[in-house]
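User: I'm curious whether this sequence folds into something compact or stays loose and floppy. Could you predict its structure so I can see for myself?
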Amino acid sequence: MRLGTELRRLREAAGLKAREAAQLLNSTSAQISQMELGFAGVSEERVRRLAAHYACTDEALIDALVAMATDRTRGWWERYRGVLPPAFLDTAEAEHHATFLREVVIMLVPGLLQTADYARSIYRYMRPELPEGEVELRVEHRLHRRLILEGDEPTPYETVIHEFGLRVLVSDRRVSRAQLGFILQEIEAGHVVVRVIPVDYVGFAGSGASMMYLGGPLPRLDTGLRDSPTGVAFCDAEAQLEKLRRLYDKVRSASLEPAESRDFIHRVAKEL
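Assistant: Here's the prediction. I'll summarize afterward.
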């Protein structure tokens, strides 16, 4: 889908209609539309031909688009196709391909750092209630997402969490203590950078700032993600991405440094 979006942007920047692009490939405007909507694959040859006809001289961008077009990876998330909402699969795939991750979470612990019991409590709270089998599938999927933070080359991940997110008892105190213990374990292992915004920070009005920013192979291929009760929304327009970058920087400026945040989490865990 992102490849198709970028090809459409190149075509529009060149001032060409879909039917004109189709003529360049001896194709049809319907096929061009299918390609730009992400419903049809594109070969490396076609990507390069279109880039040439669109007068795109950005070799790094062209190579990145070719890599997207020729990637035939069937990741672990594919096993959940048809059994979990598409947004779950899209999120996992976007994280898998990201070069770095930046996240802001206000009222809960970030999904990438949740324990099974913590995630299970969240999914069981949903209304209408989910069947127990689907709850377990969602928990399993959430834990699988952590693969990007493990191994020899983990994806750089920094998250800003509000103190509220650390203290909310989604289940009982045992679950919360274990959850904070796991975050500290990940920090000590060097897998993540966690920053905390204390509740007594003066001037923080960003309660609706929850977001994830995913780095692409090039800055123009970055992706933003906003979660809400009605679903996940991805954004890739430069104006939207710039807004998210500024938002992240603003929220980050209200947080404690990583070492201070680690000590802060220790204190909260002892108080539970």
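Summary: The first strand starts at residue 101 and ends at 105. The CA atoms of residues 184 and 262 lie 7 Å apart.
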